[in-house]
Write a structure and sequence with these properties.
alpha/beta
Length: 401
C-alpha cells in the first residue's frame, strides 16, 4: 500500500511517499518553500535516483502540488497511491482519523481562529488535492487524537461547564503524532510498555506530554497552540488578565494583542527581538546579552517545571525523551532543564549530552531514569494511521470519493 503524506504550511509543502507493504519504506520525498512569492524553491528526491532542484514561481499551493505530482509520476502511477494523508491540527467536535470530506473541513473552519497559522493553509491545500486527485481518498490524522485518553481532571478548564460543552472548550493538546512516535520508540528501546515517560517535543513550536503505559494523560498545549512553554514567536502560558490590562492601559485592540501574542512574543519577544530561532538567541546569550540569556533560562525552567509536575501526576518517572529541532540539538536546554531533577532519579551525563546522535541514551550509568534523544517521525505515524483506516473501511477505495 503506497501512501502519500503531505505537511502543509502557509508558505510551504513537504511530502513523503511511503510503501507501507515493504518495510514502511520511503520511496520519495521533497518540499516546496516560499509558496506565494516570486521565487519559490522546490526539491525532490526518490529511491530511483530522481533528483530535482528548481527555482520557480508558485503563486499558490496548486502549482507546488502540481510539481510534486509531476515528480511522483516517475516513481509510481497516481492510481497506485492508496490515499493522501495529512497531519491536520484542530477541528470543533472532531478528532482522531477522519476521511476529509466537507463536514470535517467545516469543523476545521469552525476553529480557524483557534489555529490561525495551521487550519487555513491546510483547508486550502486539502481542497486543492480534492481537485487535482479526485479519485484518491484524503485522510486526516488530527494532532489532538493521541491526547483523547486524557482524564477529565487534566483536560477540563474552570469555566462554566455549559459554555465549555457548547463551544468545545477544553485542553486538547497537539503534536500528537510526534508524542505517539516517541512513546512507541522509547517503549521499544526499553523493552517495556508500562512506562512513565515525559515526551518533550521542542522546536519552533513545542509541547510536553505525560505518557503513562503508552497513553497520554496530560500535555502542555491546550485549547489552542498558544500556551505551555514559550515558542519561537508565540507566547506560551501567561496570566489571562494581561490581555485586559493591555486593552485598558495601552488601548490595544484585540487584533493587536492577538498579533503580539502569536507573532511578537516567545523567543523573539523575550530576547528583545534578536530572533525567533533559539540558536541565534543562545549565541547572543554567550556574548553576554542578558535578554537572550533570560529567554534561554526561562525556557529551560518552564520545561523543568512541566517534567516535575508530570512526574507527580504519573506517580514517578522512568524516562524522558527529547525530540524536535531544539530537543535534539540544544545541549544547553537539555542540561538546564534537567539540572535539579536529581531527586527524581534524573542524572544527565554531561559528556553524552554534549554531542549525541538520535537514539542515544544520555543518562549516567545506573541512573533510575533514562534520558533519550529521539528523531521523531510524524509522517510514519500518520501513514500507519491512514493505512489502518483504509483497512477498516474497505468500501472506501480510489474513485469512491
Amino acid at each position: 500500500m503506497k501512501i502519500l503524506i503531505c505537511n502543509v504550511g502557509s508558505t510551504s509543502l513537504k511530502y513523503r511517499l511511503l510503501d507501507m507493504g515493504d518495510g514502511e519504506r520511503s520511496l520519495a520525498w521533497g518540499k516546496a518553500e516560499r509558496v506565494g512569492s516570486e521565487e519559490s524553491t522546490f526539491a525532490h528526491d526518490d529511491l530511483q535516483g530522481g533528483r530535482v532542484r528548481l527555482t520557480a514561481s508558485f503563486p499558490t499551493h496548486r502549482e507546488a502540488i502540481q510539481e510534486m505530482l509531476r515528480c511522483l509520476e516517475g516513481v509510481t502511477p497516481q492510481e497506485e497511491i492508496a490515499c493522501v494523508g495529512f497531519k491536520v491540527v484542530h477541528a470543533k467536535g472532531v478528532t482522531g482519523v477522519q476521511l476529509l470530506e466537507e463536514p470535517v473541513l467545516q469543523a476545521m473552519e469552525a476553529y480557524n481562529s483557534v489555529a490561525p497559522a495551521h487550519n487555513p493553509p491546510y483547508l486550502a491545500a486539502i481542497r486543492l488535492f480534492a481537485q487535482l486527485m479526485p479519485h484518491t481518498p484524503l485522510i486526516g490524522s488530527f494532532e489532538t487524537g493521541f491526547h483523547a485518553t486524557m482524564p477529565p481532571e487534566a483536560y477540563l478548564y474552570s469555566l462554566p461547564a455549559e459554555l465549555c460543552r457548547e463551544e468545545g472548550i477544553r485542553r486538547y493538546g497537539f503534536h500528537g503524532a510526534s508524542h505517539e512516535y516517541v512513546s512507541q520508540w522509547v517503549a521499544a528501546a526499553m523493552g517495556r510498555s508500562d512506562l512513565r515517560l515525559v515526551s518533550c517535543h521542542l522546536g519552533g513550536s513545542g509541547s510536553l506530554c505525560a505518557v503513562k503505559d503508552g497513553r497520554s494523560i496530560d500535555t502542555s498545549l491546550g485549547f489552542s497552540l498558544q500556551c505551555g512553554v514559550m515558542h519561537n514567536n508565540r507566547i506560551g502560558d501567561i496570566d489571562p488578565f494581561i490581555t485586559f490590562y493591555l486593552m485598558e492601559a495601552k488601548g490595544m485592540s484585540p487584533q493587536e494583542i492577538k498579533e503580539l501574542y502569536s507573532k511578537k512574543s516567545g523567543f523573539y519577544g523575550m530576547s528583545g527581538g534578536i530572533s525567533n530561532d533559539l540558536r541565534d538567541i543562545e549565541a547572543a546569550a554567550a556574548q553576554g546579552n542578558q535578554d537572550a540569556q533570560n529567554a534561554v533560562n526561562s525556557y529551560a525552567y518552564q520545561i523543568k517545571k512541566y517534567i516535575g509536575s508530570y512526574a507527580a501526576a504519573m506517580g514517578g518517572l522512568d524516562a524522558i525523551a527529547f525530540a524536535g529541532g531544539i530537543g535534539e540539538n540544544s545541549a544547553q536546554v537539555r542540561q538546564k532543564a534537567l539540572t535539579g531533577l536529581e531527586f527524581l532519579g534524573v542524572r544527565l551525563d554531561p559528556e553524552k549530552n554534549a554531542a549525541p546522535q538520535p537514539g542515544d541514551d544520555l543518562s549516567q550509568e545506573g541512573a533510575p531514569v533514562r534520558i533519550y534523544v529521539v528523531a521523531t517521525n510524524e509522517e510514519l505515524i500518520v501513514a500507519r494511521k491512514a493505512a489502518a483506516w483504509l483497512e477498516a473501511h474497505p468500501d472506501v477505495r480510489a474513485g469512491d470519493r
